[in-house]
Amino acid sequence: MFRDPVLAAHPAFSDAHAVHIGIISTYPPTHCGLATFSAALVKQFRRAGHDVSVVCLDDGKNDATVGGVVVARHLTDTVGAPQGTAAALRHCDVVVVQHEFGIFGGADGDEVLAIMDALDVPVVVVAHTVPLHPTPHQAEVLVAVCARAAQVIVMTETARDRLITGYPVDAETIVTIPHGAAAPTPRPAASKVDIRDRRPQLLTWGLLGPGKGIEHVISALELLNRRGVTPHYTVAGITHPNVLRHHGDAYREGLIEQVRRSGLTGRVRFDATYRDVPELTRFVASSWAVILPYDSRDQVTSGVLVDAIATGRPIIATAFPHAQELLGSGAGIVVPHGDVEGLAAAIERFVSEPSLRATMSAEAARLAPDLLWPNVARRYLDLFDHVRQLSHSVAR
Description:
single chain, six-stranded parallel sheet, globular, alpha/beta, 13 strands
């Protein structure tokens, strides 16, 4: 197997520490953030020469297939599935469970507990969601998941503090490792179109659905249009498969109608083009700024936010926890949730202050190296080494 020389130079990537890593998660070609996250980790682990076996969570409605690193499908809410998943990963040295309440079977995804009980190798849990106000059963499930794990990874200090202070868990087992991001690519040279049209290019991207807050940006742009401030705005991404399954494309269609009513046709563009990771990073790098107008006040992790930082783009975001934490040093502007006037003011400030854009870009570039996937993967592998040492000492 190919071994990246830079990664292999790190102690956790050496032959002496080579591990067989199991991963339980959604996985491409399923379209969701968790699948993309897992695929990025798998790529880094394999580049470093480690073996990886993935069990893909499948509710029977996605495109999960067995082949390559995917050694089995876990059909949720199916009798015997937890034991089958454990059997498929029995040769692994450590198993990573990507945890979200909605991807496992059972109430609040409590099927994950049966899977963890069936495994006989150390388990590392990646907690993608830590609710500030969980239901009693959500809290019960998350506490039980943490109790069964050798280590629990969260991706922000906000999530770590929330988990330790709000749930009865062992603080010693909670580790913060940031969400990874693809390496940035140079911004493309200006095209003839860019030269003719120097208006700022704003971008929001990701899977679409209610809660993304894009309607607030359109309202802010309508206000700015009346003031003669006319940036262009691109909304890139397909409708989230689960949203499409249950509600169709109503959210996107409503946004398009809002643009028409607001007189912004030609200035707001919807782009559903699929882009692989290199294409996406180039696309993001071509924007002037990224806008993350999410409605959620509870979002402790945002992969889109991390990717935007990695490309060195300035960011305008609502005050969800991950944005407050990551943008606090000056890589972006944080505005209150639902504050259309505040959002318009932030966009206008960004447009009118070149020095501010430069300062935010420089801070994003300073933060980026620690967020790149190779560096994040190193920290995972260090943790796996620690978990294996603990497991061996207990066995003795």
